[in-house]
Amino acid sequence: IEGLVANVRSSDNSVLGVVTEKYKIVQNVNAFDFVDALIDNGDVRYETAGALQNGKKVWMLGKLNQSSKILGDEVEQYVVFSNSHDGKGAIQIAITPIRVVCQNTLNLALNNASRMWSTRHMGNMQEKLIQAQNVLNRTKVYMEALSETAEGLSQYSLRRGEIEMILDAMFPIEEDATDRARNNKDQCKEEILTLCSAPDLQKFGSNNAWTFVNAVADWADHRTPQRASMKFAESNFDKVVSGHPVLDQAYSLVKTLAKVA
Questions:
Q1: Which tens digit of pLDDT belongs to each residue from 30-66?
Q2: What are phi and psi of 104, to 5 degrees?
Q3: Sign of the four-CA dihedral 93, 34, 143, 192
Q4: Whether 74 contacts 100, CB under 8 Å
Q5: How many angstroms separate the CA atoms of 202 and 101, rounded?
Q6: Each residue of 218-237: pLDDT tens digit?
Q7: Are 217 and 104 in contact, with CB atoms under 8 Å apart?
Q8: Of 30, 97, 181, 239, which has the most beta carbons under 10 Å away?
């Protein structure tokens, strides 16, 4: 097709994506080299790495050598670096706070601080240092905004009727839905309601907006599908980078009720 080319992996001739002729490839070996500055300064250490979709996307997970306290709850700070060859994304960076006590991710789409952004490959050392510092600065801003959000949500008590209204909006049941579909969505609602009473969340107080958000995060991160598959596992990990839509929806609904920015 005129104007389009294929990104082909040289080792096995696999096609990883179809892109325009203007597309600039960033090799995996070069994609994350600006992170070396974070490693050298002792700000980050690598935890693990992997590939998704047969190598169309590769990722590296780094742990910042600092943690935060959110409402007295210890939260560790991670950063995911990903590189894509399918033409759907550049080098992406995503901040991923994780509650130590239960390993839940708090990937909230805050209005006043971004947890995900893109960058381009930087060639010289000065630009690498600038990008490395940018990662640290954005992480600090996001974590401060997340702490403020948690404080605001914890002050708003959710009535049972409000929780049920939010869950109905999250899991709407169509009039022509099958009994199986109805039961599945009802089960999702019940699971989240049960998690609202989890012992580790009672430190935040019962039935407040922050407790509810954490219950949804727990459900989104650890719910076991009826049919586990590699595709599900990849999709679930991809949500660590891009954010879980169910968690984003829950947060959007409760912040409207609590009038939190």
A1: 888 888 888 888 899 988 888 888 899 899 999 999 8
A2: -85, 140
A3: positive
A4: yes
A5: 13
A6: 998 887 665 555 566 666 66
A7: yes
A8: 97
Tokens of 233: 């596992």
Strand 15-20 to 57-70 pairing: unpaired
The amino acid at 117: W
The tokens for 96 are 């991923």
Closest CA to 119 of 107, 109, 108, 133: 133
* 112 band by pLDDT with thresholds 50, 70 and 90: confident
Checking 254-258 for CB contacts under 8 A at 24+ apart, the result is 254/153, 254/156, 254/158, 254/166, 254/209, 254/212, 254/213, 255/149, 255/153, 255/209, 257/156, 257/158, 257/162, 257/166, 257/209, 258/152, 258/153, 258/155, 258/156, 258/209
H helices within 117-208, ranges in order? 125-154, 160-170, 179-195
CB atoms within 10 A of CB 6: 13
Instruction: List the structure tokens of 216.
Output: 């949804």
